[in-house]
Automatic annotation (TrEMBL):
<dbReference type="InterPro" id="IPR001638">
    <property type="entry name" value="Solute-binding_3/MltF_N"/>
</dbReference>
<protein>
    <submittedName>
        <fullName>Amino acid ABC transporter substrate-binding protein, PAAT family</fullName>
    </submittedName>
</protein>
<keyword id="KW-0732">Signal</keyword>
<dbReference type="InterPro" id="IPR022448">
    <property type="entry name" value="Quinoprotein_dehydrogenase"/>
</dbReference>
<feature type="signal peptide">
    <location>
        <begin position="1"/>
        <end position="22"/>
    </location>
</feature>
<feature type="domain" description="Solute-binding protein family 3/N-terminal">
    <location>
        <begin position="32"/>
        <end position="259"/>
    </location>
</feature>
Length: 276
């Protein structure tokens, strides 16, 4: 179950000449910051460079004094095998901590699943899936995502509207469809991964409220630490990225906050206070 949830989150969910470069794997480029990315994973990675993961890639490349280059591939079955493991690129900008398909860097953000509701509606004050106000409501949920367990435990699955988990985002966007349905009144609330929901809601400029689900009791947890992913065994490259994360955390937070990503504390017990 733990592996399935990590995989689900990863779906909703890289080199530089200089001191120590000789120790870096021969697969890691010394002429470009090579990123493995989905070309249509809006708002995270987008082929036109508008995603916040694109901005993070630009930040890291600038610190390494390298240009950014991309290997584009839909983030579905075979993504890691056909990009990172194939040696076509060196880093995945966003990956859930603890996933065995990649070697994780230190995490650079912690975020959570969220409840999205109309800010002036009857559910505006709801902060937990256990709130009785949600009973009998039609709630959108990505099928198979961790919050579905909590919805089932709280008797909310009966009227839930499921949206696909694994899709080719070039042709289908479940998160956008869910927010469209919420605006149209087809559903009363939406449960989504915060780093997707927050930026999409902010961009729409609509009167919606994004509430991180930090009060759910029991397993599974609904907050996750997000890392970068590199090839297994590339410890020197991982340490180089860890150093960049540590030294540039304020700039990373600024990019994420500007995009609308809800940032929470490492233990998921509150919102992160971001220094402006």
């Amino acid at each position: 179950m733990r592996r399935l949830m990590a995989a689900a989150l990863a779906v909703l969910l890289v080199s530089h000449a200089g001191p120590g470069a000789a120790q870096t794997s021969d697969l890691v480029s010394r002429t470009a910051f090579r990123v493995c990315a989905d070309p249509a994973n809006d708002p995270m990675s987008v082929e036109d460079g508008s995603g916040y993961e694109n901005r993070l890639a630009e930040l890291f490349a600038a610190k390494l004094d390298l240009p950014v280059s991309y290997t584009w591939y839909p983030m579905a079955t075979g993504f890691i095998r056909n990009t990172l493991k194939a040696g076509k690129c060196d880093v995945v900008m966003g990956y859930a901590q603890g996933h065995e398909l990649v070697q994780n860097t230190n995490h650079y953000m912690t975020s959570a699943f969220v409840l999205v509701v109309p800010s002036d509606g009857p559910l505006a004050e709801v902060e937990s899936l256990a709130d009785p106000k949600l009973q009998g409501r039609a709630i959108g949920i990505i099928a198979g995502s961790p919050p579905a367990n909590h919805m089932a435990k709280n008797g909310l699955i009966g009227r839930a509207k499921p949206y696909h988990l694994v899709v080719d985002r070039r042709h289908e966007s479940p998160s956008v469809d869910m927010l469209d349905d919420l605006e149209a009144g087809t559903i009363d609330a939406a449960v989504m991964w915060g780093p997707i929901a927050g930026p999409l809601v902010k961009r729409r400029g609509t009167d919606m409220k994004v509430v991180p689900l930090l009060k759910e009791e029991g397993f599974p947890k609904l907050f996750y630490r997000i890392t970068m992913g590199v090839r297994q065994g590339e410890k020197v490259w991982e340490r180089k990225l860890n150093s960049l994360i540590r030294r540039n955390q304020d700039e990373i937070n600024a990019i994420l906050t500007e995009a609308g990503v809800p940032l929470v504390t490492d233990m998921g017990d509150g919102m992160l206070e971001v220094t402006q």
